[in-house]
């Protein structure tokens, strides 16, 4: 199966015309099949939903750049979001759970909040933001990557164990955030 994917990628990169398109489709189909049915911690419908939302974001980016019509992009985005929600509801009903449990499920909340966040970002994309907020946006991926390691360090330090006085807790949280932001603000250039 991997040989098919690599052959498809090779055709997509090296060839032109129809063979290039066939190679790209072959690589994409094998990749989607592996993602959906390779026994990851996600259910296949969840993995495919995440991929659909990622590609929807790419399509909206292309619409923003004038490479795809907005009317079609919005229609597809609403359809994909609706299908993702429907897939979640169908899965919960098929598993014998009631629709009310869907609201408590972290997947459903995550999809809803991600859609709202993306929509708000798209709506306010031309607004001039304060420099501190744009800087926080710039380092947000570093914060995402670094915070688990810093939490491990924090949890292993003796004086953070046990119950502390509330102002001391606030001081430790402030110190944690300061160290995290300083580490994330380090330049990413090799020395």
Describe this protein's structure.
- There is one protein chain.
- The protein has 191 residues and is an all-alpha fold.
- The protein folds into three domains: 1-38, no CATH class; 41-127; 131-185, no CATH class.
- Helices cover 78% and strands 0% of the residues.
- It is built from eight helices and no strands.
- It has helices spanning 2-14, 17-37, 44-64, 70-94, 100-104, 106-123, 131-156, 166-185.
- Helix 7 (131-156) packs across helix 8.
- The mean pLDDT is 81.
Radius of gyration: 22 Å
Low-confidence stretches: none
Query: Can you give the mean pLDDT?
Result: 81
SSE string:
HHHHHHHH
Total beta-strand segments: 0
Helix content: over 70%
Query: How many helices?
Result: 8
DSSP strand content: under 5%
Distance between the termini: 42 Å
- What characterizes the major β-sheet? none
Number of domains: 3
Structure class: mainly alpha
Shape verdict: extended
Q: Layout of SSEs?
A:
Layout lengths: L1 H13 L2 H21 L6 H21 L5 H25 L5 H5 L1 H18 L7 H26 L9 H20 L6
Please name the defining characteristics of this protein:
191 residues; mainly alpha; 0% strand
Q: Could you write a compact summary of the structure shown?
A:
Helices cover 78% and strands 0% of the residues.
